[in-house]
Amino acid sequence: MHFAQYYLDCLSQASYLIGDKTTGRAVLVDPRRDIDDYLHDAEAAGLRIELVIETHIHADFLSGHLELARATGATIAFGEAAETGFPIRRLRDGERLSLGADDGQGVTLTVLATPGHTLESICLVLREHPDDEVPFGVLTGDTLFVGDVGRPDLLSAAGHTPQDMAARLYRSLHTKLMPLPDATRVFPAHGAGSACGRSLSSETSSTIGDQRRFNYALQPMPEDDFVRLVTAGQPTTPGYFAHDAALNRDGHPLLEPGPPPALTLDEALAARDRQGAVLLDCRPLAAYTAAHLAGSLHTSLDTRFAEYAGSVVTPGTPIVLLAHPGTEQEARLRLARIGYDHVLGHLPDPAAVLARTPELSRSSCRIDHEELVMRGPELPKGQSLEESRTGGDAAVADARPTAAPPAGIQLIDVRNPAEYEAGALPGARNVPLAGLPDRLTELDPARPVVLYCRSGNRSVIAAALLEAHGFTEVCDVIGGYEAVGAGAQ
Predict the structure, then answer these.
(1) Domain 265-362, second-level architecture
(2) I need a labelling partner for 255 at 20 to 30 A (CA). Which of 160, 238, 245, 404 fits?
(3) The pTM is what?
(4) Residue 277 CB contacts under 8 Å (≥ 6 apart), including other chains
(5) Which residues are catalytic?
């Protein structure tokens, strides 16, 4: 058997190439949109990709099923409940897919219908030989992660509430996956950082036995308790998720690789003023905060670039990239992985452009914890960061804000709800980064805004968004909540 996992750190996304070396037949599961690595490795291993299997209709990235079908002639397959805008093979619950010879021997995948994350979700039990008592592994898609389970609220079908989907997920886990032998390896579609769950591990594989013992959602509990547990505290959904889900379901233009064209400053500004283009600065945080083009947005290539870009840039918006020389092609590819194809070009060497045009340059307002204490709210006296998270006494047991900031200051926590619930600065309002574009009207652009996140990355992205929308007094907290808490001890 040929088995390879491809893990994309920037999207926390895993795909799989599985083949039978005897026959050369292979399948690809949950591929990303740029497919060259798959094609190269399949050719090197003497494999023919005959089937592209999607464990469900993805929302967090644009899948490569159409690109692979064009390149290899492979058939696209989904779970039986999938509704798509292009021809597919429907995989039935219990169906066995053999990659071996006609005698039925060789590598075999068994389809398990596991609705819950979505209605059409499936898992694939992989055996090197069809009669192996213990499977080699199970590809669990977004049904089961290492340390978590798929969230039931992302793509709740019409007429199906998150609670209904969570109940389906409970039954899928306990009737389809938990009966597998403990030694069965678990290969999920995502890892830590993905917004498809809230407690995903950084490990990219596990076993059924370990998940049975250590996964919080698989501990013995009634179905109703499971439903309440997995529907609470999920991360805010980035704005591009619905866009990607529609493209993965209905079809999308095929990826056209290549670097974006170079633009002059005048061309970049004209694209902004005449076409509504976003100027997206993807340089490292330190470079952006030191000097950036007025009105530009920011998300660094050395972070979760595409996800954050998809949180602050509306799908379909034209984009001009401001990137360190030589990184513009990588930025364009990462945007294409979430279906953001409308990149008009890039501004070569933004730092040099800013040096020549200081009248267009701005620096970011950043404050440390001492300055925050002087300007605004502080942790309750004597309370450590750990106490603020766990609750040091009855007064702060739920770690919620206990005192309002001074009049005039808007203190905004841009972390996800679960992070905020675990501990926040007194007087802070929770407006997660992914939901900020839709909640700008809740903030007063005439009043100062102080933003913070966990470590100081998302807050810079949020500050750039506010500045681009006309907020004139915006600061973020260096080092975020962790640094503030450490300084307050």
Answers:
(1) 3-Layer(aba) Sandwich (3.40)
(2) 238
(3) 0.89
(4) 268, 271, 317, 318, 319, 320, 344
(5) 453
